[in-house]
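Why show two proteins at once? Because comparison is the fastest way to build intuition. When a single record is shown, students tend to memorize it. When two are placed side by side, the eye starts asking what differs. So, the first record is below.
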Amino acid sequence: MSADEPGVGSEAVAAASGVPVGETPTAVLEEGRTIRMGLIGLGSMGRHHARVIREVEGMELVAVADPSGDRHGVAGELEVLPDVHALIAAGIDAAMVAVPTYLHEEVALALCEAGVHTMVEKPIAATATEGRRVAQAFAKAGLVGAVGYVERCNPALLEMRRRMRAGELGEVYQITTSRQGPFPGRIADVGVVKDLATHDIDLTAWLADSPYERVAGQVAHRSGREHEDMVVATGRLRNGVIVAHTVNWLSPMKVRQTVVTGERGAFVANTLTGDLTFVANGDVTSEWDLDRQFRGVSEGDSIRYAISRREPLRVEQENFRDALWGRPSEVVSMAEGVHTLTVVEAVLASASTGETVSL
């Protein structure tokens, strides 16, 4: 993980998707020019995007669309347009897509055909096949295409990745994540794997700078819904890091934690609070024999870092803006989005067959 090569890991993950990557979009906007933004989907995520787009320097929200209307009252003085075609007709430079997952491909392809740069809320589409069509279309058109994985903009994870790339953890051995809490009423069209586990799969490959090599999954249906509400997934990345993800909608406790263990200790990120802690491997020998026999490496000093906290969704939109202006950007590429969705489908396939899936 060299800090001198910030794009290597992302390119490796993206290349695993089978989508052409690495080309600079040819249709970026003039730097500093105000970006005329459109937003389609004014639901639980769209309402937050509307607010943030209005706050980001260099962006202007000029059009919004939702066939279901504006139930959260975020349009303000803007007319609520009926569909993506009306949004395009408003004369936008770029768009944020926050419609239900099953509509991602249809809406994104319409925007691509019209020459509109686009960020799509995660996952990129309902299936990896659909996502690949979207990613290939944007690559062929030379447009900026991105996926909204907001956890990558969490301050604790950003600081963790910076320190990992600086070599502070040494060789990375294992990444584990826990994402648990009550069922969110906003979800109707997917299960917990495509809604929540997709975050953990994306951020794990990003932190480790490596695509997934193989995965195995177990799911449960305990709430009476069509889709799964619990999953435990394990796997290995191409660089040898082993991973484990525990995700569910049936916990009374809301947990958002990522732990990266390496040769010098472990980083623990609480993404609910934005806190990052480092627990070092210690060299203090315990004199209590019973205690000593239960410890592998010894427990060393624990440091809770003081880090600057900014709203992740704002950072995400600023990354999109920078990509549109042709600046270096940490925006999540559509090709990376396809890889993540491919892994998600492999987890579900493994749960169905009981076999480990190689990617």
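Second record. Ask yourself what differs from the first in the token line.
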Amino acid sequence: MISSINPSIKAFAILVPGILLSLTFDMFTPLIYLLFVLVVTFGFSDVSFKRWMKIFAPFLLVALGFAWMTMLYTSDSFSGGRVLFEIWMFEVTTGAVMVGISLALRSLCFVALSLLFVLTTDSTKFMLSLMQQCKLPPKITYGVLAGYRFLPTFQNELQILRQAHRIRGVGRERGIRDKLNQFRRYSVPLLANGIRKSERVAIAMESKGFKGDVNRTHYHKMTVRKKDWIFLSVMIGSLFLVGFLSYCLGYLNIFGKTF
């Protein structure tokens, strides 16, 4: 399962194809790789399709917006071909349509790759992997973990503050000035509680011998196994395979140059 892949290796397996895809301007390459990512996501993980679709659906509208704006404002180097239709002063050509669709598909590839990582990766294991495999300083790692753990607490405290204000007769503000005052009433207690909790966490970590030393032992040992390298090779190698297939079929386009 993808959830058992080392998070740092998984991050590289997502980041490298994303960077390489940004260089392509044809429709075929991102479309085939998007289908490949979907197969990997639902075939080798326990990600719920309903949950995935709830997150992915809004980006479909964003991708359509990217495609439409690109069709209207395509540069001269990409706007070749015959004119398909005109809107006001804009002429939409076949080249503009292809570039717009390519941009939309690339955007959806980025979203699909990001969801593959986010929905199959534990945040704590990811930070531990960055510390052990990528040599990220422990001070940064544990600081990020502590801040991440505080987020649900702040949400609960904000709800308590709202209920306390409502009990005391403070209604919901409507104007901009009133909303700024409301933000100040909420932010000051939350900031004060956050400072107190951070001090307690710092004292607790110091009392347990935490000094931010890089050469330290770890209770949870993150290792890189053979299947991690296989996953990295498959994710990157499949993109090169799709690019080669696109080249053989005459679709491959990098920075406006067709190969």
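One difference worth noting in the second protein: The radius of gyration is 25 Å.
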